[in-house]
Structure formats: C-alpha cells, structure tokens
C-alpha cells in the first residue's frame, strides 16, 4: 500500500530527497493559482518558501497535504513524498499520512485550536488516530510533547483551554501536535507572523531543535526574508504562483538574480541597515526643538477578575519634539499599546499628565475632548477592522471632515480626493469599499483619515505589522514623506526593532509596564545598556547573517 511505503523509515542521509514536487499546477474554480511549481526537500534539511501574499507559497503547502481550500484542485504535476505521488493516493490514505508522516504547524493558533476543548484532548487526537496508545498513555504522551515543545508546567497546560494561554503558548501547542508522531516532514506555515520577536525566536528555535533531534525535514513558509535567512538551508522565492528563484540562503540574500527577489531583499527591514530618516540631527551639540508632547507620571491599572490588580503602565514619562518620531518598543503585555490608547484618550488615565502644545489634554472630557480630538489621531494595526466595511472610502474619509467641520459641505468631495492623492491612491477609490482594497491600500486610507483633520500628533499602533514586507516599506516611506512635508509628530508603537530603526528618531524600551531604556535610535542600536534591550536586538530576524554585507537595490 502507498501508506506503507511512505511511513517506513529512510536511512536518514541528508542527501536523500524526501520531497520532490514536479511541475505542480493548482487551480481555484478553474483559475490557475500555481503554474508549474517545482522544488525539492532533502531529508533533515530546512527549505524556506518566501513571497508576498498571493505568491502561492501557502497554496503549495496546502497542496502537499491535500488541504486546499474550497474550490482548489491539483490540475497537473506530481508531489513525490518518499517516492509516492501524493496526488494519486486516496482520501483515506492521505488521512494516514497527515499527522503521522507529515506534520503541519499552521499560522493562526486561535483558528486552529478548538476553543471549547482542553489542550490534552486536542493534542491527543493525532495520537488516537495514528497510534495504539490508550487514553492514559495518550495523556502521558501529551504532557511529554508539551514539555518537548518548550511549555513550562506541561501538566497544567494540558488541562487548560486555548483562551487561557498566550499566543506563544498556543503556538507551542500546535508544535506539540505536529511532532506527536515524529513525522519525517514538518510544514510550518507562517508559524510566527503574529508573535513578538523574542517569542518568534523561541518558537523557531524549538522547531529547529525538534528537527535536529528527530531528523525531520522542514518546509518553512514565510514572508520574512530575515526569518528565512536565519533558519533555512535553501530558499525558494515565489511570485504570482511561480518559482522565480531558488538557491542557498546566502546566495539568495547576497546575490539575488531575479528583480522580484532584489525588491524583497531591499524592502525587508530586518535585512537592511539604512534608515529612512537622518539620525545625525539627533547627535549631541544640536539643540532639539521644543517638545510638542510632554507626558509625566502616566499610570494605568486594570482589575483582573478574581486576581490582583495589573499595573499596565507604571510612572511613564517622555517628551516628543515637534516634527519627530518617538517609538515605544516592547513585547505583548509591555504596556505600549495601553500608553498609545491613553495618549488619544481612548483609555482612562489613573495618574499622570499629558500635554499637547503646552495644553493639558489628560483632564479634559465631554464636548471639549471631542473638539480637541482633531489635534491627535490614531492609525491602528488592523486597517480592515478599523474601517467600516459598509461605507465607501469616500464616506470614510468624509466623516471626520463633517464631524469636525473642517471644510464646507460643498468642498468635502474635493477634499476627499486631495486626501487620496496625498497617500498616493487614485481618486476613483472614493467609490470603493474596504473589501475591494489590499491591506496596504486600506492602511493608506487609514492614514488619510487620520490626516484629514490636520492633527499635530499621530499615534501609530503597530501600523505595518499586518503587511507584507514590500507593502510595509511603502507605508513607512509614506509616513516619513508626510512627516517631512507636514511637520507631523509621531508616537510609533511597535514590537519590531527592525522597523523602528528605519523610522524613529528616539526609542523607549518598555517591559512589564515600565521604561527599561531610552535614547536616540543610534544609541539604542549601537550601544544598548540593558539586557532586555540586547535580547530584543538579538531576536531581530536576520541577525544570524548580520555580518554579511547585503546589497541595496
């Protein structure tokens, strides 16, 4: 039987080809999505497939394990796994292969885990299907797997539900499920894209260690060239359903041949050291401009149900000079987003004073606060969630003009077109709805909306973390251009120091609600003082090849 051929042990030599994809074609509802894709994976090696959204990298992974979304179908080519063509096996045989011989670590653990089932029941499911272990033995094995995936107190975690775990913990649960039967191939589909850089490094370290200990090959699907450079033996670059380039990680990143690969390398913040701004202005001896924003003693505490109060922000103080960017960096739970929400008065302030242009804005409320909101605006992380899906883009941009009476009604449509032009979008977009725009286009609309009331301060809360690297670069360049043209002042919230290095004049590092280090960007990157800052810097994807001189295109 094909499954017997697939599950029997190979000698284990890394030179042995485990997976060989030849001229693979996939179509969705008769529209071709993959065009003659060919790639191979040797036993024990890690191959990264990189590309932007829509490049076909996830479709390739889904085709390997016969989990294409509705309407998807393999229309040509071969997927040879240990000599057996997976495109020819039956549905029943494929169920025997998934989990046992090929493990999958999906991108979003909240979508992949059942919210109403305990962790032990979810991880043991693959053991129930593929092994003869009884219930007691399966539970014991689950605890072992959770520990092997890097979870502390695995016995406690086994009895918990997904909502009781952090994002990193949930991703480790998916790793435990993927390695439960010691598969020979692990497919990791964007396994760290939603995680902080330090948690990302821990997850990738764990996958690497599991691969080394069990001799499993890994296909790493990612849009992050820094991650690919750090973790892969070889890189396959995809664009619009085709393989455009392949080679060793060093070759792809230092001598890319395809124009598309060159653009990816140039756009990736983790792969370049050039800043979008001039940090020389912040050197000693040059008097800084007067601060537009002054924050003193900011504090915020949340009452946890049945537990001790949580101090999210503790005695936070900073100033932002007019026309400059201050970045606040930290992991999830550090207090950076709570600080951002207090700055724009979306979160009540327990203690402290916020001044904007010398005027106290932390104590105002009611009608006065509504009038004052035009002075400070926010750009959110999720451009789709922050835009009303039922409204046209024109309506979205016109609303703040109406609420704050910025221009007469007869001039609003003309102002909407000016705003679209400001963020490099065509005037015709005023008639579209958010779902008709790409992620980058939606974020441009969100920026245009924030600027519609001509604010003095713009708070950007993770504004590029949900975007592909090339789109991310475009948005960062847009923010810098707008700052230069309009003298805007930014408070930029991020967990990504590689992004911060490009756009911020000054940086604050937060941990557990407190400031642990602050300074101008050059100081923070070149001479970090605190261990936590050093850990964040070390976790930036691409740091393993930092010594390599990378080209800029």
Please explain how this structure is put together:
The chain is an alpha/beta fold. Among the domains are: 104-180, no CATH class; 292-538, Rossmann fold. Helix content is 36%, strand content 24%. The strands form 4 sheets. Strands 6-7-8-3-9-10 form a 6-stranded mixed β-sheet, with helices on both faces. Strands 16-17-18-13-19-20 form a 6-stranded mixed β-sheet, sandwiched between helices. Strand 4 and strand 5 (84-85) form a beta hairpin. Helix 6 packs across helix 8. The termini are far apart. Mean pLDDT is 88; it is low at 1-14 and 549-553.
Number of strands: 20
Strands of the largest sheet, in order across it?
6-7-8-3-9-10
Low-confidence stretches: 1-14, 549-553
CATH topology of the domain at 292-538: Rossmann fold
Query: Helical proportion?
Result: 25-40%
Quick overview:
The chain is an alpha/beta fold.
Could you name the key traits of this structure?
Rossmann fold, 553 residues, globular, 6-stranded mixed β-sheet, alpha/beta
Q: Secondary structure elements and their pairing?
A:
Layout: H1 2-7, E1 17-28, E2 31-42, E3 46-50, H2 57-64, E4 72-81, E5 84-85, H3 91-97, E6 102-105, H4 109-112, H5 119-130, H6 135-148, H7 154-158, H8 167-178, E7 185-189, H9 197-214, E8 217-222, H10 225-231, E9 234-239, E10 242-248, H11 249-254, H12 259-267, E11 291-302, E12 310-321, E13 325-329, H13 336-343, E14 351-356, E15 359-360, H14 366-372, E16 376-379, H15 393-403, H16 412-422, H17 439-451, E17 457-461, H18 469-486, E18 489-494, H19 497-503, E19 506-511, E20 514-520, H20 521-526, H21 531-538
């Amino acid at each position: 039987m094909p499954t017997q051929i697939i599950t029997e042990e190979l000698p284990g030599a890394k030179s042995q080809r485990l997976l060989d994809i030849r001229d693979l074609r996939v179509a969705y509802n008769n529209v071709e999505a993959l065009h003659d894709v060919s790639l191979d994976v040797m036993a024990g090696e890690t191959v990264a497939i990189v590309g932007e959204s829509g490049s076909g990298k996830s479709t390739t992974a889904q085709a390997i394990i016969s989990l294409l979304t509705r309407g998807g179908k393999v229309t040509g080519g071969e997927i040879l796994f240990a000599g057996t063509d997976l495109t020819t096996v039956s549905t029943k045989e494929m169920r025997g292969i998934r989990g046992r011989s090929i493990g999958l670590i999906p991108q979003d653990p909240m979508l992949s885990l059942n919210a109403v089932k305990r962790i032990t029941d979810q991880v043991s499911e693959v053991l129930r299907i593929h092994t003869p272990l009884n219930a007691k033995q399966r539970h014991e094995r689950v605890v072992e797997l959770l520990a092997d995936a890097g979870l502390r107190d695995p016995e406690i975690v086994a009895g918990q539900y997904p909502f009781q775990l952090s994002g990193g913990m949930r991703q480790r649960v998916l790793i435990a499920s993927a390695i439960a039967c010691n598969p020979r191939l692990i497919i990791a589909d964007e396994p760290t894209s939603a995680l902080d850089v330090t948690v990302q490094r821990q997850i990738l370290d764990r996958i690497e260690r599991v691969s080394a200990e069990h001799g499993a090959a890994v296909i790493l699907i990612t849009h992050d060239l820094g991650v690919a450079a750090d973790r892969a033996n070889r890189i396959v670059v995809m664009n619009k359903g085709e393989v455009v380039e392949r080679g060793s990680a060093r070759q792809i990143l230092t001598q890319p041949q395809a124009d598309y690969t060159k653009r990816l390398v140039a756009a990736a913040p983790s792969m370049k050291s050039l800043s979008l701004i001039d940090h020389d202005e912040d050197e000693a001896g040059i008097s800084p401009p007067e601060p537009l924003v002054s924050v003193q003693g900011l504090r915020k505490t949340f009452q946890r149900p049945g537990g001790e109060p949580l101090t999210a922000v503790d005695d936070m103080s900073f100033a932002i000079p007019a026309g400059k960017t201050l970045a606040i960096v930290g992991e999830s739970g550090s207090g950076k987003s709570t600080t951002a929400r207090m700055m724009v008065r979306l979160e009540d302030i327990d203690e402290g004073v916020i001044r904007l242009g010398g005027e106290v804005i932390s104590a105002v409320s009611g009608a006065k606060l509504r009038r004052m909101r035009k002075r400070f605006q926010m750009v959110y992380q999720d451009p789709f969630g922050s835009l009303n899906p039922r409204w046209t883009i024109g309506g979205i941009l016109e609303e703040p003009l109406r609420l704050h009476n910025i221009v007469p009604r007869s001039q609003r449509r003309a102002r909407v077109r000016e705003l679209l032009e400001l963020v490099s979008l065509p005037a015709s977009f005023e008639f579209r709805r958010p779902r008709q725009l790409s992620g980058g286009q939606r974020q441009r609309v969100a920026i245009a909306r924030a600027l519609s009331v001509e604010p003095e301060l713009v708070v950007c809360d993770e504004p590029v973390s949900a975007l592909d690297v090339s789109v991310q670069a475009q948005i960062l360049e847009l923010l810098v251009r707008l700052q230069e043209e309009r003298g805007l002042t930014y408070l930029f919230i991020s967990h990504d120091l590689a992004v911060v290095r490009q756009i911020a004049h000054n940086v604050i590092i937060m941990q557990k609600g407190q400031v642990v280090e602050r300074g101008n960007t050059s100081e923070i990157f070149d001479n970090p003082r605190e261990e936590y800052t050093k850990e964040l810097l070390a976790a930036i994807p691409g740091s393993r090849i930092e010594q390599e001189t990378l080209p800029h295109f």
